[in-house]
């Protein structure tokens, strides 16, 4: 893993892609509505824990979370934490009855900052360490739905609800390999952005991938500039683009057709600016194009538009070529990219076949080739989604003893933000938000 080295979770047996590695109900769930104005997420979680009727029990259960003592942290991290959190610790210490010592409040805040997921506080899942290119995904309660139910409305929702969070393998994992997830939301970030975001979230530095992790080395193209691009200008453009992508709410692009069209125009403008500087397989270009695909599909859902369908086919192919450099073929994001192209092909076949044949003569040059490709893309997407839940089938059972905790101490366990994959039972074209909000 990129972070860890002490305590972690390791596979005790081979684990296939799509298997549930671990499940756990949160010992404390805090909804977004419980966060008061001006509070950070981890402060709100710590406050709710201390104000809970189960305070004594909860404090006992989080005692094992890292750091168990402030002295467990390296001196520089401890000093930084004390400087950044001193006022918050004093406020938390005095906000509960009976009050607690500021040092105890600081320790609890750091436990929550380094371990709390958006879906709550966990004891076992907090042992799973971070990797920028992980072998597993975390689903929060209710995020992964299985099969189908004939029960209508609320009854159906209740039948599909799963109160436990789940960690699911996105590729085959070998016995002895560490189980990892990403703490950083979108995977498609530059190395500098990943390091800065992790430092802000967890106060410690990202380390290099451990030997044998997947992929040990990500293809150089994913961070490369175009030949002749001026490094300073490229770095500035990249920083501005990533800051903009982090600030924009991707869900707003799907609210209305007008919003989707406006978003797509802005994204196309951004692509035009950075495509002159970044390698076509750059991770951040891939992230930008995933946003473009989302806006394009939102538009096509409202009305046929040959130009938008052609764009969706193009960006879907670009996304998949980049994904091949850093994602396993069994990742849910791969299914999404296949669906992007399938939706674009179906739309252009229906609206303007001649345009499709002209735009992609070597791939979709006639009706037979295009329809075969569309069917194959849909099969590819269905096969990947089928790893995570069978069509109409029951929930997969955890692999049981396939994951085991090993080691004694953890450098930086837990997470404040997780990528949310698409629900297995969602219709073709539906998708979850690309990023969770980052709480700091």
Automatic annotation (TrEMBL):
This is SET domain-containing protein. Residues 1-184 form the SET domain. It comes from Alexandrium monilatum. It holds the Pfam family SET. PROSITE patterns: SET. GO terms for cellular component: nucleus.
């Amino acid at each position: 893993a990129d972070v860890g080295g002490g305590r972690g979770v390791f596979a005790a047996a081979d684990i296939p892609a799509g298997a549930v590695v671990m499940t756990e109900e949160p010992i404390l769930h805090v909804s977004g509505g419980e966060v008061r104005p001006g509070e950070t997420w981890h402060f709100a979680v710590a406050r709710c824990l201390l104000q809970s009727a189960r305070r004594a029990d909860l404090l006992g259960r989080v005692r094992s979370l890292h750091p168990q003592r402030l002295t467990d942290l390296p001196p520089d991290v401890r000093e930084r934490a004390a400087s950044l959190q001193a006022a918050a610790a004093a406020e938390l210490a005095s906000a509960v009855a009976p009050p607690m010592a500021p040092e105890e409040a600081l320790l609890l805040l750091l436990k929550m900052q380094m371990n709390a997921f958006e879906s709550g506080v966990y004891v076992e899942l907090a042992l799973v360490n971070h990797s920028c290119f992980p072998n597993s995904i975390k689903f929060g309660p209710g995020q992964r739905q299985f099969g189908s139910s004939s029960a209508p409305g609320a009854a159906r929702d209740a039948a599909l609800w799963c109160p436990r969070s789940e960690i699911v393998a996105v590729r085959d994992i070998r016995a002895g390999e560490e189980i990892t997830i990403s703490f950083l939301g979108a995977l498609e970030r530059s190395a500098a952005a990943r390091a800065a975001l992790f430092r802000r979230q967890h106060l410690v530095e990202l380390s290099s991938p451990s030997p044998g992790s997947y992929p040990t080395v990500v293809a150089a193209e994913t961070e490369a500039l175009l030949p002749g691009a001026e490094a300073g200008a490229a770095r500035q453009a990249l920083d501005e683009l990533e800051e903009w992508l982090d600030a924009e709410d991707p869900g707003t692009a799907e609210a209305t057709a007008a919003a989707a069209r406006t978003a797509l125009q802005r994204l196309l403008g951004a692509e035009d600016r950075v495509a002159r500087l970044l390698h076509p397989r750059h991770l951040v270009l891939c992230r930008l194009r995933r946003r473009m695909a989302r806006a394009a599909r939102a538009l096509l859902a409202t009305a046929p538009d040959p130009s938008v369908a052609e764009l969706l086919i193009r960006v879907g192919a670009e996304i998949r070529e980049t994904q091949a450099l850093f994602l396993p073929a069994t990742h849910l994001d791969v299914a999404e990219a296949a669906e992007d192209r399938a939706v674009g092909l179906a739309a252009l076949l229906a609206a303007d076949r001649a345009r499709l044949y002209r735009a992609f003569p070597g791939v979709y040059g006639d009706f037979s080739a295009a329809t075969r490709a569309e069917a194959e893309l849909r099969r590819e997407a269905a096969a990947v989604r089928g790893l995570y839940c069978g069509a109409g089938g029951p929930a997969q059972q955890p692999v049981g003893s396939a994951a085991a905790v090993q080691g004694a101490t953890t450098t930086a366990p837990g997470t404040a933000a997780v990528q949310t994959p698409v629900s297995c039972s969602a219709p073709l074209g539906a998708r979850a938000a690309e990023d969770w909000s980052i709480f700091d």
